[in-house]
Amino acid sequence: MGTRTATVEPQRKGVDGGALIRAAVVASVATLLMYLYLVPVLVGAGNAAVILRYMASVVMGADVLPPPANLSPTIMLAALAVHAGISLSMAAVIAFILHRWGLLTGIIGGAVLGLVFFAIIHYSLTLIHPHFYAMNHWSVALVHAVFGAIAGGIYELYECEPGEQLEGSL
């Protein structure tokens, strides 16, 4: 009788939740700052309050857009909730698609996926909310690409293989 050898398939792992949260938070904060301070300058109109009002309009409707351009706590919280929710969703998709490929692919692939998300989100939003057409600007596409690159890169930096633990982690 011959000896049998068993082949062990490598363990397929899913998305690392801790790395996903880190990637989503870092990318979300970085791109929120870009939205608030860079996009109005590149568009040549508006300010941080206008951008937050556009974000809030996704859930609150176009009634939050007209002047006066005051920023109530309700509008601010709605805008931040929309931004955080979309950021977490986008980061999860980026992590799910790119989690096996390494840092460079995470950054480049994330940037490409960020542009895909721009096309999907902004062009579908204009069908539901026509006032969102004003946000279909190259600077907003740039912010989405940066979001994807940051989310993909940060995810790959912090992703742990099964059984691994980051140094200094509990």
Helix content: 55-70%
Give the helix/strand class: mainly alpha
The low-confidence runs, each spanning 5 or more residues with pLDDT under 50, are: 6-10
Major β-sheet profile: none
**Total tally of structural domains:** 1
- SSE order: HHHHH
Give the count of helical stretches.
5
Beta-strand level of the residues, as a percent range?
A: under 5%
Apparent shape: elongated
Report the C-alpha radius of gyration, rounded. Answer: 20 Å
Cα-to-Cα separation, first versus last residue: 49 Å
Number of strands: 0
Mean pLDDT: 86
Explained architecture:
By secondary structure, this protein is mostly helical. The chain is 66% helix and 0% strand. It has 5 helices and no strands. The protein has helices spanning 17-43, 48-60, 73-98, 103-128, 138-158.
Write the layout of secondary structure elements.
Elements: H1 17-43, H2 48-60, H3 73-98, H4 103-128, H5 138-158
